[in-house]
């Protein structure tokens, strides 16, 4: 810096003594220093401002993965509670295509076809509601009722409703 | 700077102590008053703090801070002056302190310079800024900064009170 300064000053045609800078510096030096309470005030404000921002950034950093993990846990729980049992039963069941007004498409699981309670050609949550209503009304136990024993355990009950509900919400849900 | 941008308070502490005295001296030069200079110091760092995060320095810190300190100082001085009337307001003008012996003469010679020339001499020889930094800080062309400095030095060289600082 000093070399550069001397160079430019010489470029301007002046050779200035270093004493000039020294005397000017002393001339324009305040008689008093900065009090420590000013330092404390400025730095406390800085700390407040910067620390206030920091947790927000930290929160953002872990919030997204946490939310994703929470979504996975909740999803897994929902599947387990509402569909897990039904799915296991589904695998063990031997369903037949019954009651449907619409012929099933090739490759559609028999369990999905049987779960179409209202026989509208697809399995949705309304089928589960309808089956639940039939069970509550006692109609499901009627010998003349369609075969709604979805899980093939010989009974038409809550577990069959769960299975239909699971078929309605699963990703490859029962489109016939 | 990057650490402060990331929210590190300790990095700001380092930044503060690196430039505190320079800001204070500069503010004192503009305000000529200890209390006002302290106000300027606080306002300057508050302003700087608000730049974070996302602050990218494109020049030296002193080049960036100089116009900030000057602006705040002049505002404070203006406020102070508006609260006074007549001659007492002149007491607020920045003046060198404790001029003694040879420095008394230096101060007197400096006082004869126009404000913009005196300012540039101080930026050059007290703040140790390059001509390019001065031009950037003052937002004037480099040629303007050079000519102001040239005229100031020529005046001081021709002044018998400061002639000794210059060699032929």
Report on this model:
The complex is a heterodimer of chains A (176) and B (168). Chain A folds into 2 domains: 1-31, no CATH class; 33-176, no CATH class. Chain A has 6 helices and 1 strand, in the order αβααααα. Chain A has helices spanning 2-11, 18-27, 36-92, 110-114, 125-137, 158-169, and one strand at residues 15-16. Chain A is rod-shaped. Residues 86-101 and 171-176 of chain A have low confidence and may be disordered. Chain B is mostly helical. Chain B has 2 domains: 1-95, Rna Polymerase Sigma Factor, Chain: A, CATH 1.10.1740.10; 96-168, Orthogonal Bundle (Arc Repressor Mutant, subunit A). Chain B has 8 helices and 1 strand; from the N terminus they run ααααααααβ. Chain B has helices spanning 2-5, 9-31, 34-50, 61-82, 101-111, 115-125, 131-138, 142-158, and one strand spanning 166-167. In chain B, helix 4 packs across helix 7, helix 6 (115-125) crosses helix 8 and helix 7 packs across helix 8. The model of chain B is unreliable at 85-93 (pLDDT under 50). Chains A and B meet through helix 1, strand 1, helix 2 and helix 3 of A and helix 2, helix 3, helix 5, helix 6 and helix 8 of B. Strand 1 of chain A pairs antiparallel with strand 1 of chain B.
The total count of helices of chain B amounts to 8
Gyration radius of chain B, rounded: 18 Å
- CATH homologous superfamily descriptor of the largest domain in chain B: RNA polymerase sigma factor, region 2, helix turn helix motif
Total domain units of chain A: 2
Name the chain pair whose interface involves the most residues: A-B, 41 and 53 residues
Strand content of chain A: under 5%
Given helix and strand content, the structural type of chain B is mainly alpha
Q: What portion of residues of chain B belong to β-strands?
A: under 5%
Reading off the top of the CATH hierarchy, the class of the largest domain in chain B is best stated as Mainly Alpha
Instruction: Count all strands of chain A and give the number.
Output: 1
The SSE string of chain A, one letter per element, is HEHHHHH
What's the total count of β strands of chain B? 1
General shape of chain A: rod-shaped
